[in-house]
Amino acid sequence: MKTARLLRSATFRLALLYMLIFGGSVAVLLGFLYWATVGVLSEQMDETIQADITGLAEQYERRGTPGIAAIIGERIRKDPGGRTVYLLTDPLRRPLVGNLDSWPTVEPDTGGWITFELVDRADPDGRPHLARAKRFVLQGGLNLLVGREVRELERTRRMIVNAMIWGIAITLALAFAGGIAMSRSTARRIDAINQTSRDIMSGDLDRRIPAGGTGDEFDQLAGNLNAMLDRIQGLMEGLGHVSDNIAHDLRTPLTRLRGRLEDLDDPTLAAGDRTQRIDAAIAEADTLLSMFNALLRIAQIEAGGRRDNFATVDLAAVLSDVAELYEPVAQEKGLNFSAHVEAAETVSADRDLLFQSVANLADNAIKYTPAGGSVTLHATGRSITVSDTGPGVPKEARNDVFRRFHRLEESRNAPGSGLGLSLVKAVAQLHGGEVRLEDNRPGLKATLTLG
Amino acid sequence: MRVLVIEDDADVAIYIVKALAEAGHNPSHADNGKDGLVMATTENFDVLVVDRMLPGPDGLTIIRTLRASEDQTPALILSALGDVDDKVKGLKAGGDDYLTKPFAAAELLARLEALTRRASAKGEPAETKLSVADLEMDLLSRSVSRAGTSIDLQPREFRLLECLMRNAGSVVTRTMLLEDVWDYHFDPQTNVIDVHVSRLRQKVDKDFDTPLIQTVRGAGYVLREADK
Predict the structure, then answer these.
(1) How far apart (Å, rounded) are the C-alpha atoms in residues A136 and B223?
(2) Domain B129-223: which topology?
């Protein structure tokens, strides 16, 4: 069970991978070293033997069999230890001269090379050693065998191979240990993230991933995850707030609707009264529906998925259209109403939403400004400002009024849903801009700026 | 008028069919896209009411199919609450008007009547003069007179009156006026339209015995001669 988990763990697999890659690299390196030492040495030996043969063959051509036999005899005498191997035989491989008793039984390879065991005459133990030789057929059918004893070369080769085997073994062991150490530190930090995630899933939303303090990728990951968690928590709190508000604020119109429907249940009611009450109930239901619509609309805009309808919009045109629509309402209420345009730009925007936002601001200004006051619409650059001389919004409440259903205490009894400014803010954000409330001394100055 | 209602929600379908029948129209109903498309192509209707989401081909596909086969029967698209984006898609697909659920029966009826009127006016030479009772409008000289007395209107008032006159005798809702006269799809928080209509009334009706612009409670306005 534990082994299985170990085998599955990322630590183990990373360590194994690290070991294989590192071990493989070292093996390639050692292979190169082997080739550069042993390979070159044996090549040199082969070249020496080849040169020897070429020399003897020349001598044979010039001086014939006795000549070459004399040379071979001379060489053998100079080398009593038997490091060089010579054997000249007749075509039937019967020895003529040489320090080998008989022709080796080993079959030569295609190049004529043979490797065979040689008994060292100088060695008291009489142990055989490896020798390497080449066969050459002289003109006239004589067989010439020239070779070297390869004891030294073989010893060197064995030493190098031994050292390499140990080297690779040590490398693998070190690589595995190092891999475990390295990946374990990685795994520990991933474990910390996992542990925090599990805590959060089990309900502890306040937990955050600890940072290592080095500012590396893991710290960045932890930072990003923490920021994401903060955002989610903020959204959830907002959502909770909104649904509380919805429950609270929809209760009133629903209660009124219920009351009006109950009023209808009166058999003595005259037809005219009945119609009037039905109309009132329908109007109440319509109010509720438009509240839901506004809520959904704000949610959709906030989700940011409504950029399909963006087009080039002339801010000045939007402003004058709003002014044209609302001027009679303002005049009817006895307000001074004016609109100015000053170097307004054309912007990429959702025309309907922009109109709706400015209309909401104008609507608010007209609604809250008492008779005799004034409402002014102003467009400049990428901003539209709606200012009034009404009661304004206290500084400390200027953020709250953008929350859904939020209404100032003083305006609770005025008609409205408390959603108008929420929509303006959502629209401003959709356009990468902002909406700002300022003191108009007296009154309120609301500025919608597009990004 | 013959109306085909393609709507899979039984309650909504009954509501629409009943409202249409009560208003003296002749409604047919299909509860899925396939039947709806077959009926729309094989029978003759004056106007279609098509739900956006349907089993089988959806509403937009139906309208696109009809338009591709040169069928120009006006179509009104119904869509679920809050799907604001669908409006553009619906109109692009060849729909002629758009209504979000839930809606008042009066709004639907007013829009359907306006649609059929617009469709039947198509192909006829453009009118240059409109008249209802003793009210006359000259679209070329942009002038209005009633019983021979000239009435001076602001451009927007002129368009408002034009919209009412073109739909004379049938209800025009506030939303229809906003879309038609102001060309904005938006949701006024207060009834700004009412103020504009009452200004228009001041000019058109005040000095005359019979008022022409009448308020239809719970629906909108209608321009017609008052019942004697």
Answers:
(1) 126
(2) Arc Repressor Mutant, subunit A (1.10.10)
